[in-house]
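Please go through the sequence line and token line underneath and see whether the fold suits the sequence. See right below:
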Amino acid sequence: MAYCRAAWHLDSIHEQELPPGPCFIYGNHSNNYDPFIYNAFTRLGESTAGVMTMECLASGPVAALFRATGIEGTRKRVPEPHLIRRIYRMLDEGRRIVIFPEGGRRWDGRPAPWIESTAKLFMRAGAPVHPVEIVGSYVGWPRWAPWPRPARIRLKIHPALDFSDCPTLEEGLRRLKAPIAADETLVDPAVRPAWAFRPAVGLDRLLYRDAETGEFGGWRVEDGWHATSDGGRRRWQVLPDSRLQEGSLPPVSTADLYAELRALPLPDPSRGPILHQHARTWMSGRGVASWQDLRLYHDRVEWGEESLPLERIQYMGLERSDRIWLLSDKGQFNAFFPSGSVLAWYDTLGRLSPHINA
């Protein structure tokens, strides 16, 4: 919490105070420190418990500290009945539980698909469910950026939602999504950072294709403040709030550019692998990690001498901003990317195999 107050100017907009007692707290999530920002506004003795990705709780003193404060690990979209039981136990103990229902930080500041099992939990548990919106989360520290920007972050507590009329899942999702559905790239000027250190660094993790040529890796960050694309013919200045400006033209949202490249057709399969990346790979519980050439084709993933057909992948997820895991009947495959865009792999796998995470 001390880091949060040092990095950003924090204040709150209270439509309603959070009452004492067990409850769920959820909201938008773009900044790695969002859970700690929540706790910056809680009273002494009322710190939150919550759910965090399993990798953060694997080992070490930080993992031990998280577990001691009531943080439970999850593999996101993988069914985990045992996790539900532990959450009910925390409610019985009177804890306030933070869950980010989109399964991780937003990459572009816009709403992402919900994990429906989280919505079912909120609707059925019988505890108050409080939407708490973090205004300035994305412009304060985008997921793709290596360091924060000094934004003015505001916490907006919405009234608790009511499910006493037993709505359908579709209606429940509509109610749950509405309070946090804002586009985080569109914020009041008072929230936007006035300056940022080298704001273009990391942008190629998000904008991983050239919108004109379709080339993967077509975006280039030049000097920390500028980026080029469209075959190198266009050059943008990256503003402190992550918008891009070309000359005297109005600034462009990174989310709009990301949406454009996601709509591009995939390359012809006859041209070889769609993506090719040097990565540190390992199978959970089997041997040690090693550096391999990782290749993605239209029907399989290859690394070294091994191959995994896409049809056998059941679930996948991203950890931090540089790791991806794939769960199949062979076990869990993991890859760490020291450079390049792990998001390119996640998005492309989702397009090739819509059954993953379904």
